[in-house]
Amino acid sequence: MTSALTSAPSLPSLAAAGLYGVVVLLCLMAAVTAGRQRQQSWHKTAWLAIALLFAGLALLRLYGVEEALRDDLRSLLYADGVYEERRKYQRPIAATVLALLALGIFVWIAIGFRKVHGRRNAAILVALASAFAMVGLLALRLISLSPVDALLYGPVKLNWIVDLGSALGVLASAGVYFAVVSRSR
Q1: What is the helix, strand, coil percentage profile of the chain, to 5?
Q2: How far apart are CA 74 and CA 84, in angstroms?
Q3: Which is nearest to 122 in space by CA: 172, 160, 165, 184?
């Protein structure tokens, strides 16, 4: 990987990594609480998986891996002489990512909330949906297709909204879960 790994992280990257660190801590607290309070085993697994995801995202931010990967992909396309044709590849990939995100949202709404009842389960579903949104955002940022970039980084700053919203969604869900499960015993 190139120079992005050797440069210091920007202030927004440091702030995001710090927020992700708080998310990791609250998810770990929720996982420990799930274990201690003898909740369903998938509760602990879900919280640990989300904590692992956000720990990875924090490292990606701190070390500039996302930017370095994007730069390396661009360099590879230039070296192969296909950079000018990149949209031919980016469009189907972006469409696939968006279709998978839509499918995930549909499954989450249509199936998740019908089969899962209770505030603790709902908190986990919201946290999982938030984590899913974060993964989708990461994929869209890596694809770097101009029309998608215009949506993500344009005047509305959809990138920030989804990034912060996802992290705060997980934080709030972990807090609700911790409060509900701690009170129930």
Answers
A1: 85, 0, 15
A2: 11
A3: 172
Residues belonging to the chain: 185
Nearest CA-CA partner of 36 in 181, 179, 136: 181
> CB atoms < 10 A from the CB of 154, how many?
10
Domain regions of the chain by residue span: 3-184
Helix, strand counts (H, E) of the chain? 8, 0
Interatomic CA distance for residues 66 and 4, integer angstroms: 9
- Under 8 Å between Cβ of 34 and 43: yes
Q: Which amino acid is at 21?
A: G
Separation CA 42–CA 105 (nearest Å): 20
pTM for the full predicted model: 0.81
- 7-11, 23-27, 75-79, 131-135: which is most confident: 23-27
pLDDT at 67 over 70: yes
Structure tokens at 99: 């279709």
pLDDT of res. 5: 57
pLDDT digit string, tens, across residues 127-176: 998 998 999 888 888 777 677 777 777 888 888 999 999 999 999 999 99
Cα dihedral 74, 76, 78, 82, rounded to 10, equals: -100
pLDDT band, very low/low/confident/very high, at 25 (cuts 50, 70, 90):
very high
